[in-house]
Amino acid sequence: MHETLFAERDEERATLLVDPTRSGGRLKAVYESWGYRNIGEQQPFEDSPVFATMVRDPLHQ
User: Fold this and answer.
1) Who contacts 20 (Cβ-Cβ below 8 Å, separation ≥6)?
2) Cβ atoms of 3 and 9 closer than 8 Å
3) CA distances from 50 to 18, 41, 44, 54 (A)
4) Residue 15: what pLDDT?
5) Using CA of residue 4, residue 5, residue 6, residue 7, what is the dihedral sign?
6) DSSP conformation letters of 1-61
7) What pLDDT does 6 receive?
8) First-residue to last-residue Cα distance in the chain
9) Are residues 12 and 61 in contact, defined by beta-carbon separation less than 8 angstroms?
10) Rounded distance between C-alpha atoms, residue 60 and residue 47, angstroms
11) pLDDT band per the 50, 70, 90 thresholds, residue 30
12) Which tens digit of pLDDT belongs to each residue from 11-28?
């Protein structure tokens, strides 16, 4: 389903924030298996978790 969503997109890359502690790190590992790589961390709000900033570039693999 993930690849199907990207199939008709013209963008060069996709970015997302993921809580690296979610599901014991398994959720982040899923995104990595789909071609995303960690490029840093963000904490959008003072009381939010520190998210891994991930990018998939190029979008179509």
Assistant:
1) 28, 50, 51, 52
2) no
3) 9, 6, 8, 13
4) 95
5) positive
6) -HHHHHHT---S-EEEEE-TTGGGGHHHHHHHHTT-EEEEEE-SSTTSPPEEEEEESSS--
7) 85
8) 15
9) no
10) 35
11) very high
12) 899 999 999 998 999 999
pTM across the whole model: 0.85
d(C-alpha 6, C-alpha 57), whole Å? 12
Q: What CA dihedral angle connects 36, 59, 42 and 33, to 10 degrees?
A: -10
Q: Which of 16, 47, 46 is nearest to 31 (CA)?
A: 16
For the stretch 32-55, pLDDT in tens is: 999 999 999 999 999 999 999 999
The label of the residue with tokens 């979610």 reads 22
